[in-house]
Design goal:
The chain is an all-beta fold. About 0% of the residues lie in helices and about 35% in strands.
């Protein structure tokens, strides 16, 4: 009950509490009220005021919080080392200028500066300087570039000095570059002193002087943040100046160390604080100076003598901010700045998916990956001397089972996977052996300890000898022997034979060989060897094939087991009862390095190759054939002939199976596959660049820095067997090709990664967001842009994730703009003609067209449609050779656009893999899969279970399936038809209902091998709503969504069409409707009114408001005004 107060002013100034407003959920909000009424909506946590016609959000004047004191560390890019041409040691690069407010000391050994006060909702500019690029040209080293934060600027480090190249002032900087070791030559001055540019004082120190000793000219070290660079001498180049140690991130770390000076015949100088590049010298195996460590602003090492003595590049700069977390809980960035992350993907050996091999190249060529096994690591057997002797002997039983995973591409020879005797003197009484015969059949021998054998020679193994992982399960039950493969419940071999308990085996089980015969060893990989004391059922067989990392260490999976050999780094039994002993078995694809040095790399260290003898040999079992990805970082030398990232050759027949290389001298890179070279022109750029190659059996794609540069069609898959595989060189029959430059982070995958995965590899990073007590530290490692802090979470903007645009076709190339973002899913319909709907997305081929109103398979020709690209503000259409498409001249079109997650990424959350582009914030993902058999699940990439999923088989003219929340896995609607909700009494349509990680699929939708696309949505408060309502049969039925819609699609669960309405095609206050299941031009008459809080049905039409009928709908919000 309310009471009216008859006064114009209510004085509550003496009260200390707050004024309490009416409150309640959105569903309790009255449709109309008196102008000026206010209430708190507890669903959306907003204060609303009624303006006389509708409820609007109250725009409040925010309390202005005081500025927050914020510490900073700003380090500029380090200078590059010089490159001499007169058999002398070059001066090293100086460190980038350093300014900081954290701790007691700043650059130049000065006192720390005052912190910066940050105001909320105010942008502050950040720019991270680049290191100076190293060069092979006889010149001063290039200067680093400046880093800035707000009003703080740090000057780039000076380059290493070469006397004859010009004035010493060209090597001044934040810290000065070192002098050349030839004649007396002072190093460049750091601030204070002869500063380069207009930088402020107190940032760094001077470079060191070069040696004048004729016996060995040592270049001066680059200046550091704290000390001057060391002078060169007759015994070494000068050491780099010391950097500043700071704990601004919570961990003590050095920044801004000077580079070490080069030397003509003695030892190169040591980089300052372990982060400046070491000086070059032929004595230490590399005339080139090392690079400064990235994101420390350290100087590059000076070049050594004139043969190949390039100056090392300076390390890029860094900007770090530290502030109280509670005062600045949220931030946003713009431009090209990296987004700080609390994760370290460099340390992730399964990033972005499980690697076959991962070479970090940190002081060695070892494989850090977990890809040698089917799950994690496995045993790698060389075919000549590798085997495992266990301590398990098969007892006197007639029922038992064996399961294992294996991988090989070797054919035509006998190979033993498993045997219960392991010496040539004991071949007459085996209990069990499992082998691949010389005729490429599976073969197993079963005995009772004397001479009772069962031999299977009818089960072909050839299709399993493809270099991929396969599961075998051998089941003995006393009356039969069955061999199962890859989870299929129909055995590939089924023999009837009486198997008596007999006597116990006379020798322990061996894995990977039988006896000591040199031709009977297994050549390939084995993993997850399980021995069971019982005969397994067919369902057990399926479970073994479906096992994951969650069960890989479970001894008694799926039933009680005797032993489990995971082969993860050793031959032990997980139960620790029957441990084995391995001989010459590898558990990782470790490489062997020859004449390779290690210096500062893209991440930690990198391998340096000298162009004449350096090579890393990879083990033979690492053959890659179809479905692979090769990824790595390359820093090539300007003007150099070639840098080999990877090579695979047949040294007996001089066949180049595969290699990938960068050719700076030719301004190109190339891929060779099965002897055919594919070239891509690319202007040389200094520094580190990421390269990746993916191959799926038919298409070879080449990426640089996360972007696709070239696609090559491959008609025949190379047969790679016994190849010589290397990093850094190409080994051939009669000669070797050696490359120069530096290589880091080589990852090899046994699958063709998706474009999004390659993008993630390019964006791999160390941890850049830190928590230290009550403070947060943000580390910016590259780019330029603004950072803005706030005390409230960033506002989710609907128009950044969904928008409708209208356009007129012209049958020519035209860019459709005004979307406001780069869409991933665009649904097009001509408004004024009877054409089919057109659906395009970024996960499928760009011009792959689907039609919501037909069952047609995907169409990829450009006869009617030419969808050229998804763009930053819309999409581009091209000309076509026919009409009835999405760009016909003078026809009016509507395009509904959704933002997913950009390029697709591999997802392994389901029972089979999928490709997913997911927008987690907006509750929308696009899922692509290749169908299995029966029923299965695939990951959808969202954190919440989808509430509506649209399924379409791309290969067959099958109906669109639509699953909606509240349905079972036996219920469906059809997007292409007006049919009522359909249910099956038994069996399944979707296999399972969606979960927070997966959606179900079954053979009802697709045959094995068919491609399927799915569009998944769930509700997001204030942006989208997937819901249901009951029709009233009376005008005025109000549906509350919690926002003003920009788009609504409605479907009765009875026999009615799919109605589509939006706020761009208004006819008065009502949207004209189109129908997802019909090609009709747009029509009028349904009278669906978009309100501030949902939509109102001002109609009794059965399509949207039949009395007591059930309806489902999907709505998306317009931007609030």
């Amino acid at each position: 009950m309310s009471t009216k107060v008859s006064t114009d002013l209510i004085d509550l100034s003496s009260n200390t509490g707050g004024l309490v407003w009416a409150k309640g959920p959105t569903t309790d909000q009255p449709a109309s009220a008196t102008a000026g009424e206010m209430r708190v909506d507890t669903t959306t946590n907003t204060t609303l005021v009624y303006n006389g016609t509708q409820w609007k959000t109250l725009k409040e004047t925010a309390f202005v919080a005081p500025p927050v004191p914020t510490h900073f560390l700003v380090v500029a890019g380090g200078g590059a080392g010089g490159r001499s041409d007169n058999n002398t040691g070059s001066g090293a690069g100086g460190a980038g200028g350093l300014r900081t407010s954290y701790g007691s000391t700043s650059g130049g050994n000065s006192s720390a500066e005052s912190n910066i006060e940050i105001s909320l909702n105010t942008p502050y500019n950040i720019t991270v300087g680049n290191g100076g690029a190293g060069t092979t040209t006889a010149t001063n080293g290039n200067q680093g570039t400046s880093s800035t934060f707000s009003t703080i600027t740090s000057i780039g480090g000076g380059g290493g000095f070469i006397q004859r190249s010009g004035s010493a002032s060209t090597v001044n900087g934040g810290s000065g570059g070192g002098g050349e070791g030839f004649t007396t030559s002072a190093g460049g001055s750091g601030n204070p002193g002869n500063g380069f540019g207009t930088g402020t004082a107190d940032q760094g120190k001077d470079g060191g002087v070069g040696s004048t000793s004729a016996s060995a000219y040592g270049g001066g070290g680059g200046g550091g943040a704290i000390t001057v660079g060391g002078g060169g001498s007759s015994t070494s180049g000068g050491s780099g100046g010391t950097g500043l140690e700071s704990s601004i991130t919570g961990t003590a770390t050095f920044f801004a160390g000077g580079g070490g000076g080069g030397s003509s015949t003695a030892t190169g100088g040591t980089g300052g604080s372990g982060i400046g590049g070491n000086g070059g010298s032929s004595v230490t195996g590399s005339d080139a100076g090392d690079n400064g460590v990235l994101n420390t602003g350290s100087g590059g090492g000076g070049g050594g003598n004139m043969v190949g003595g390039a100056g090392g590049s300076g390390g890029s700069g860094v900007v770090i901010l530290r502030y109280p977390t509670a005062d600045l809980p949220y931030f946003t960035t713009t431009g090209t700045l990296n987004t700080p992350s609390a994760t370290d993907t460099v340390a992730d050996v399964a990033y972005p998916v499980t690697n076959l091999a991962y070479y970090k190249l940190d002081s060695n060529a070892n494989d850090s990956g977990l890809g040698s096994g089917y799950i994690g690591q496995g045993g790698i057997f060389n075919g000549s001397s590798s085997f495992i002797n266990t301590t398990y002997t098969i007892p006197a039983i007639s029922t038992y089972s064996l399961s294992l995973w294996f991988k090989t591409s070797i054919t035509g020879i006998r190979q033993y996977l498993f045997a219960d005797f392991n010496s040539s003197a004991n071949t007459s009484s085996p209990r069990l052996t499992l082998a691949i015969a010389a005729n490429n059949n599976f073969q197993f021998y079963l005995g009772n300890g004397s001479s009772n054998w069962t031999d299977s020679s009818s089960a072909s193994a050839l299709s399993y000898l493809d270099g991929n992982w396969h599961n075998l399960v051998l089941v003995i039950n006393g009356t039969s022997v069955k061999l199962y493969a890859d989870g299929n419940t129909t055995p590939i071999a089924d023999l009837t034979s009486t198997v008596s308990a007999g006597t116990a085996g006379t020798s322990p089980v061996s894995i990977g060989r039988i006896g000591d015969y040199p031709l009977l060893y297994f050549n390939g990989s084995i993993d997850q060897v399980r021995i069971f004391p019982t005969s397994l059922s067919s369902s057990n067989v399926s479970l073994l094939y479906a096992e994951t990392s969650a069960t890989s260490s479970t001894l008694n999976y799926p039933v009680t087991a005797t032993a489990l050999y995971e082969l993860s780094g050793n031959a032990n039994d997980t139960g620790n009862t029957y441990n084995g002993t391995a001989t010459n078995v590898l558990y990782a694809y470790n490489g062997t390095a020859t004449d390779v040095t290690y210096g500062n790399g893209r991440f930690n260290e990198a391998a340096n190759f000298n162009g004449s003898t350096s090579v890393i040999d990879l083990p033979d079992p690492l053959n890659i054939t179809t479905d692979f990805t090769l990824s790595g970082w390359v820093s090539a030398i300007s003007g150099a002939a070639i840098t080999y990232l990877y090579s695979s050759t047949d040294t007996n027949n001089d066949i180049i199976y595969f290699n990938f290389a960068v050719q700076p001298s030719q301004n190109r890179f190339f891929v060779v596959y099965d002897g055919v070279a594919y070239y891509t022109n690319l202007t040389y750029e200094s520094g580190w660049h990421h390269y990746a190659i993916t191959f799926n059996g038919t298409s070879l794609k080449v990426y640089r820095n996360g972007s696709l540069l070239a696609t090559h069609s491959i008609s025949t898959v190379a047969s790679i067997s016994g190849s010589k595989q290397t990093i850094g060189a190409r080994v051939r029959q009669n000669y070797n090709d050696f490359g120069t430059g530096s290589i880091d982070q080589v990852r090899i995958f046994s699958s063709a990664l998706a474009a999004g995965d390659v993008e993630d590899l390019y964006n791999e990073h160390f941890q850049t967001k830190f928590t230290d007590g009550s403070d947060t530290a943000l580390k910016f490692t590259g780019g330029t842009g603004d950072i803005t802090f706030a005390d409230t979470a960033p506002v989710f903007t609907p128009g950044d994730n969904f928008n409708t645009v209208l356009y007129t076709g012209n049958n020519g190339t035209q860019s459709i703009t005004g979307v406001g973002f780069q869409p991933d899913f665009t649904w097009i319909k001509v408004r004024d003609f009877t054409y089919n709907h057109r659906l395009f997305d970024s996960v499928r081929s760009l011009n792959g067209r689907l039609e919501s109103n037909t069952t047609a398979a995907e169409v990829t020709n450009t006869t009617n449609d030419n969808f050229v690209s998804f763009d930053s503000n819309g999409f581009t259409l091209g000309a076509t050779s026919s009409t009835n498409g999405s760009n016909d001249n003078n026809k009016s079109y509507v395009a509904w656009n959704w933002k997913a997650g950009g390029a697709a990424r591999n997802n392994t959350d389901g029972s089979i893999a999928s490709l997913v582009s997911a927008n987690v914030d907006a509750g929308f993902s696009i899922v692509s899969q290749v169908a299995s058999s029966g029923s299965w699940t695939v990951g959808h990439g969202l954190d919440v279970a989808p509430e509506i999923v649209f399924y379409k088989n791309l290969d067959l003219a099958n109906a669109w399936g639509v699953w909606v929340t509240g349905f079972t896995d036996r219920d469906t609607l059809y997007l292409n038809a007006a049919n009522a909700k359909t249910s099956v009494g038994s069996g399944t349509l979707y296999g399972s209902v969606p979960t927070s990680t997966t959606i179900g699929t079954s053979s009802w939708l697709a045959n094995s091998g068919n491609s399927v696309i799915s569009y998944c949505f769930h509700s997001v408060a204030g942006y989208s709503k997937i819901g249901s309502y009951t029709g009233t049969g009376a005008s005025g039925n109000t549906i509350v969504t919690g926002f003003e819609p920009a788009f609504v699609m409605i479907k009765s669960t009875g026999v009615e069409s799919w109605y589509m309405m939006d706020n761009k095609r208004l006819n008065g206050v009502y949207s004209d409707q189109l129908y997802a299941n019909l090609s009709n031009a747009e029509g009028t008459g349904q009278h669906v009114d978009f309100t501030s809080n949902g939509f109102q049905l001002d109609t009794t039409d059965g399509g949207v408001n039949n009395g007591s009928a059930s309806y489902i709908y999907m709505a998306f919000a317009t931007n609030p005004t």
